[in-house]
Design a protein that fits this description.
The protein has 11 helices and no strands. With 307 residues, it is mostly helical. Among the domains are: 55-69 and 77-154, no CATH class; 157-262, Receptor-associated Protein (Up-down Bundle). Mean pLDDT is 78; it is low at 37-47.
Length: 307
């Protein structure tokens, strides 16, 4: 009996302790809401090591350098850099400030390289000045040239993909889809820079932007005249109540004709472009192959005559 009484007493004490320590459902919900309402505590610096090196070091350093150099740059330089980066599709995931910082860093590196070259290469004063100016000019123009090349490449890809995109839009509209649904179908089925721009335009429309504004912003971002003309025709047909399918068919035929004209122009320029490699690389090799046996025979004949 004493043992049973002790076990029951211990169990009662245990149940009392557990009951006191347990919280009600209302208290648990209040604690969770209090945790979510508290300000977010910054993560310790050690957790930043899981992020890529570019995000941890390179991007902040470029942004800080751009803010330092920003006092010396024109007011519209950052906006122009942003427009070019948007047209290039953000190839290096840089913003306008980071690109300005990259330009400043590149100029600083090439200035140091110019000093080193001008000091250690034994040339005259005029040669050193010319090399110094040339190297600094290369450092100044190199980021802009790389960005311009990226813009040109992406615009060429968009111009090349535009007729196929219009064909898919035309098929989707004639199948019964609306223009938004046709654009979404293009974004799902195709994988090219134009489909990426259409995906971004769809996201903007889902966030509340009007379709005309989203399409116009897409044309302004890319800077492709053919796409701007297509967007203008679509917006005009939508506002005037015209048939979207007719506009798409006309635009598709027009763009295909323009693409064939551009291909013919490129083919007509090929002979002129081939002159440089022919004159400087292929003809010298042919001369060496064709004339070297005769030159060897003439040399041997002259040696024999002299003997």
């Amino acid at each position: 009996m004493l043992l049973i009484t002790a076990i029951c007493a211990a169990g009662a004490v245990l149940f009392i302790i557990v009951g006191v320590s347990m919280k009600s459902e209302r208290a648990i919900i209040q604690d969770r809401m209090a945790q979510h309402s508290q300000p977010v505590v910054p993560m310790p610096s050690g957790s930043d090591l899981s992020r890529p090196f570019r995000e941890r070091v390179v991007m902040p350093a470029l942004a800080k350098l751009a803010s330092t150099v920003g006092r010396l740059t024109p007011s519209g330089a950052i906006g122009a850099a942003e427009a070019k980066l948007n047209a290039a599709g953000r190839p290096w995931k840089l913003g306008g400030k980071e690109f300005i910082g990259l330009e400043a860093l590149c100029i600083g590196i090439f200035v140091l390289l110019a000093f080193a070259v001008a000091k250690f290469i034994p040339v005259g004063t005029f040669g050193r000045i010319a090399m110094f100016v040339l190297i600094i000019a290369i450092g100044f123009l190199l980021p802009e040239a790389a960005l311009a090349n990226a813009v040109t490449t992406r615009q060429s890809a968009i111009r090349k993909a535009l007729p196929d995109v219009l064909d898919l839009l035309l098929v989707s509209v004639e199948a019964g889809l609306g223009l938004d649904g046709a654009i979404q179908k293009v974004a799902e089925k195709l994988h090219n820079p134009l489909s990426e721009e259409m995906t971004l335009a769809l996201q903007e429309m889902q966030l509340g932007k009007r379709r005309a504004e989203a399409l116009r912003d897409m044309a302004d971002r890319t800077g492709v005249p053919e796409l701007s003309a297509f967007v203008a025709a679509i917006i005009q047909a939508d506002q005037l109540g015209g048939g979207i399918s007719k506009v798409l068919r006309v635009q598709s035929e027009t763009l295909r004709n323009m693409r064939s004209i551009r291909a013919r122009e490129a083919a007509s320029k090929l002979p002129v472009k081939m002159l440089v490699p022919l004159v400087f690389f292929i003809f010298p090799a042919l001369f060496v192959v064709v004339l070297s046996p005769g030159a060897v025979r003439i040399y041997r004949a002259m040696i024999m005559v002299n003997q």
